[in-house]
Amino acid sequence: MNEMKENNNISSVCTNSMEKREEKKELTRTTILKRENFDMANSSFITPPPATTTSDIDQMPSVYALSTTATPPPPLNSIFDMMPCDIIGGDQKAGSLGFIDLLDINQDFGTAASLFDWFAQNPIVGSQQQQTFVPSPASTLPETSEVLNNPATPNSSASISSSSNEAGNDAFQQVKTGDQEEEQDHDKTKKQLKPKKKNQKRQREPRFAFMTKSEVDHLDDGFRWRKYGQKAVKNSPYPRSYYRCTSAGCGVKKRVERSSDDSSIVVTTYEGQHIHPSPITPRGSIGILTDSTGFGAATSSFVIPQTQYQQHAYMYSSSPSLNITTSNTSFSPTFSFHQRRSDSPASLLRDHGLLQDIVPSQMRKEPKEE
DNA sequence: CGGGTTTGACCCGCGC
DNA sequence: GCGCGGGTCAAACCCG
């Protein structure tokens, strides 16, 4: 109970105190993460090496990578090596993010103004499918990466069907086709539908997770969220918070929790797709921006859980001299906090904090427009 | 008073 | 079948 209280305090501080948020904005680094099977319950995917002072924000940029073996994977050689992004498919055991569906991220996000837009434009690749994750010549974590072990999907945007994740894909399709009402009803009349569920496996929308090095639990991503639940996470001193988009008809949810191993890392999981622009921003506030020039800022912290059996984690220092591959299929997963009210703490964050670190300056100058 | 948060209870799926 | 744990509900509470 006391533990819960403490956790609540953590959460409250982060979500309620604008001043605190503003105060901590500089301590925030955001990362989309790429992971195959991240066991959220165990939160074991990150174990910062002792030698590294993860608490020292100034130490960033840094890269977390994982390996199932005791042998540290080779250093990351290109931006692709730490390309983070995943889609977590539906139809999964709640809470356990095993069998995460990966999306072929070797694609051009250029036409998508937001992750959600991108989702809408690109089919999901099921978990049983292959992912062309990192076309990096310096394939890191070869022994651990299912991505690398799996044959790459030649045409990422082609394959949708998934043996085990059709439910998830279907859910996604529903979103794509504007069939949100069913999902909404599914939520709102859940209890009424219970009898049905006996025969019908619960469908989950694709999920997208990213990790943020931040002391702020609930990052302001431009959308308005209502917290509808909080649960203690097994084997973690930190609770998991559940949020739902407050926009009418929008069933997007997100979960926020801290890594038990590294309290400075926040794992945010989005589920579903917004059917509306951000109430604060003209477009979805989370923007995937194509950056063929690489990470100009190169100061982000990339957390890359790589494997299903994460047992070891290694940290690499990413340097500005990263070998950035500049193919037209490359993209830099960055979070773009678009236009917002100038007096909002988020704007401060954008202007002086996180954004500067994670979004190359040129991209900040001209946000994607449609 | 409306909207957001907290929190205990409940539901459900899964593993044993 | 049972227990566990994640996810959700909803009443109570808080706050501006």
From TrEMBL:
InterPro entries: WRKY_dom, WRKY_plant. It comes from the Eukaryota. PROSITE patterns: WRKY. Residues 191-201 have a biased composition (Basic residues). Residues 7-17, 130-148 have a biased composition (Polar residues). Residues 214-279 form the WRKY domain. Residues 149-165 have a biased composition (Low complexity). Pfam families: WRKY. Keywords: DNA-binding, Nucleus, Transcription, Transcription regulation. One of its GO terms (cellular component) is nucleus. It is found in: Nucleus. Residues 1-25, 130-209, 342-370 are annotated as: Disordered. Transmembrane segments: none annotated. GO terms for molecular function: DNA-binding transcription factor activity; sequence-specific DNA binding. This is WRKY domain-containing protein.
